[in-house]
Write a structure and sequence with these properties.
Prominin, glycoprotein, membrane, single chain, transmembrane, transmembrane helix, mainly alpha, elongated
Amino acid sequence: FNLTVYTSVLNEKITSIDLMALAKAITETANKLPPSQIKIKNSLMFQAQYLEVHQQNQVTTMLRLVQELTDNANNLTEHLRFNEPSLKLAVEKMLRQVEKAQDLLNTQGPQIISKIASDFASEFTVHITDYMNRVVQQTEHNVGKCWPVSQVYNATVTTACNKILDPYNGFWASVGFILVLFIPSIILSVKLAALYQKSDPYPGPLVEAVNEKRKKKQQQQPRYHEPYDSSGAGVAAAAG
């Protein structure tokens, strides 16, 4: 793979002649024509202008692109060689290195991976330990300095809330519960009081059955009468 062939082709001229020189020659020839050949003169002038525009808009751009391709080809040649005299030697060296790396992985791959994992775990543990020590140190020496202020603040909040506000809150809470529960209880008691004051039995088949049963029991009970003695002896005995 030789990029010199491509660079040599790119370095060749895009056109076989210089278009600007040709346009200049055509313009000079047109200026030398007599007035009777005005059509030929105008045609030559038009062709000269066309060549100049073609040189400026297309050929110049193509030359710039050719220069960029040449530079890229040279850079590619330098990078692909990997500090070797040629690309072929660089590729052969790379293949040997790949084979050597493959053999190393086949023979010592598990040991190398285990060592890398162990080193990574050790390094990670060291970082975690350092971070924890830093957190503890900052907490003890920097954050811990505000502990008295925090204690004063907590004591103030506790005193204001528990000793002053809580009794008032309890009082107003009890008043609220009374308003919510006691007033409906009073209304219900007034409604039930009218029912409890009634003395008449509640009419109904159950009450009537009970009353009839009581009457039957009273009728079935025997009546005891003392015998009446109209004789005087009986009266005397009774008087004695």
